[in-house]
Design a protein that fits this description.
The protein is 7% helix and 34% strand. It is mainly beta. It has a single domain, classed as Metal Binding Protein, Guanine Nucleotide Exchange Factor, Chain A (Beta Complex), CATH 2.170.150.70. β6 and β7 form a beta hairpin. The chain starts with a strand and ends in a 21-residue tail after the last strand. The chain binds zinc ion (2 copies). One zinc ion binds next to α1.
Length: 147
């Protein structure tokens, strides 16, 4: 199990099972929304529940009411991405693309606790044309895993 929380700790979550995809996205909107070189994230299924109390593999265990959602319509890929963040500290936490990937919840790697999420590494990179040229690709490009 992986646990995670935002910077201030208001919003906490748990993840069960393995992610479907682990991604570094360098699109402009992920750069803007994180204020960094891109967004590192893991994709989890909303379908098959890991345990009966979970919605798929993801569960908010504290502070769901503190989440705010920005509907990001101007994406490089087309569809709307709903980006949810802690309204107290601003940490980006989850993203959802309901039209393109209705069964996926995309969880930011930076909010995962290092003790539980330390094995994370990207298997995919998106929008590499916007990637900083000094940044190496540590792994070979792996096929996208369908949901
Ligand atoms: Zn917070
Ligand atoms: Zn992106």
């Amino acid at each position: 199990m992986i646990t995670g929380c935002c910077l201030c700790g208001s919003v906490q979550y748990e993840l069960r099972g393995d992610p479907i995809n682990t991604v570094m996205c360098f699109c402009n909107n992920c750069r803007k929304s994180t204020g960094s070189i891109g967004m590192a994230n893991s994709w989890y299924s909303k379908k098959a529940s890991a345990t009966p109390s979970f919605v798929g593999a993801f569960k908010i265990t504290k502070g769901a009411g503190a989440l705010r959602t920005y509907k990001d319509h101007a994406t490089d890929s087309g569809g709307t991405v709903e980006r949810s963040f802690c309204s107290n500290c601003g940490s980006p936490m989850i993203a959802e693309n309901r039209s393109k990937f209705p069964d996926a919840v995309i969880v930011t790697y930076g909010t995962m606790e290092l003790e539980t999420g330390k094995m994370w590494k990207p298997e995919l990179e998106f929008f590499c044309k916007r990637k900083a040229d000094w940044l190496e690709t540590p792994v070979e490009t792996v096929k996208f895993h369908e949901l």
